[in-house]
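S.,

Sequence below, as promised.
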Amino acid sequence: MALSLPPGITPPEVAFLCEMELVTIIPRQRLEGLRLLGGPTPPLIPPQRTPLPLWLALLLKRQNRANILPPPWLSSSSLDAILQHEISTLEFSDPPPVPRNSTTSISISPPFHPSATADAPEDALPYHWLELSTLLLEAASDDIPSADHVRRLLRDLREVRMAKIRAGVEVLEGGREIKMNGVGGMEVSEGRAFIAGVVDGLRRLGVGRETSRREREGERELGMGGEDEDDVEY
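The prediction came back faster than expected:
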């Protein structure tokens, strides 16, 4: 018997995809480049900054072979500014701008643009902001200034944004649309069950209303037909 899987991508799968994001490291020792499925990595030469996939950067960090430079948005000052913006408006903060290829004009998506490297914008949360910050705080908290304060700000930011998602879903009951621009991957995955439940409930409610309307119209037509028969017999 096959097991039923939940629809969409689960939180562990989102966290796994997040490890493809590029981050910036400062190597502590020389290492040759590696040939990976996603392409070769540059050789590591201290103290040159080098972009690497997050999973490889975490491995080198655990082996004390490199330090990880946190992205600019993962600082107490940037997170505090983003939090104040989230509190002051009903919309989510804007995501980082997506660069375009100058020759083909095709949009480039993560991990192919620097949304988590040392060159990332400091006033925008990337798509994998929640899971990426969690992984960095677990494995490289000593590389993040004021790590405890950053944790508190991330917790407050997560609560504010989840409250916005719940409030936005309630708007669907009035038949209006909601704007979800800027919502992160983990937030979508965690809120999927709640959002899907609300949408399914609204769908069933709409079907029930439609069925009731048809029944009333049928009864009205039968009533009018009965009146016509009485008139003929009279």
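Confidence is low (pLDDT under 50) at residues 102-106.

Coffee later?
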